[in-house]
Amino acid sequence: MINPVLKIGDSLVGRIGAHGVDTYPHECCGALLGHDGDGSREVIDLLPLPNRRDDSPRNRFELTPDDVRLAEKTARRKGLELLGWYHSHPDAPARPSEFDREHAWPWYSYIIVSIANGRPRGIASWRLQDDRSAYVPEAIEVVDEVSRPEEPVRQGVHC
Amino acid sequence: MPVKVIIPTPLRAYAGKQESIELQAATVGEALNSLTTRFQELKKHLYADDGRLRSFVNVYVNDEDIRYLQKDETRLHEGDTVSIVPSIAGGARN
Q1: In B, which residues are within 8 Å of A53 by CB distance?
Q2: Contacts of A130 in chain B (CB under 8 A)
Q3: Which fold, A5-147?
């Protein structure tokens, strides 16, 4: 795995947190769309998606193959790649669970936002090791979009 | 017969960085076996320790989920496309 650093705009971090607040105490989820290059990966847009788990949405989320295909199609339409996924952990740390690990593939970035008492309390990104044994932290570099005026500014709640 | 298997982006690193693989197979089971024999690193990401497809791994022939066909025994025809599409799942507590 080369240089696992994920760049993401501050407004997108805010949107992930806001999604987690909106669905609290249930888990939110969505897709990360962007560019992946040699040694750099940047999230350019999000695709919020509905949590399909009706039975245990407080501590589980699921997206169907149709959701995955929609995310791939949306990314292609925007000239982007499907880089990974985000979801929230209501009243739990932004660390992957064993259940997360069992249901993951390498390469994807998995952002987790912790929502404590209805407020964003932390965000982290993780990637599964090639041998599936564990997640490794992926550093998040939050890009200040004010310094990039050519980028559209989106409103959101910051973690 | 010749069929094409589409490799999802996260697994291309384990399949010679190829987007798709052309191979000869009469059934889906044969196609996946041929694929994972040729690219052995793929196997652990598709199959659990009990030898079954991981619960979040879905396989389609053209646009049909093999769970609604004959699963591994689903017959393939010349020119068919086999796609591997994950479900995405997780959650806070084990």
Answers
A1: 89, 91
A2: 41
A3: Cytidine Deaminase; domain 2 (3.40.140)
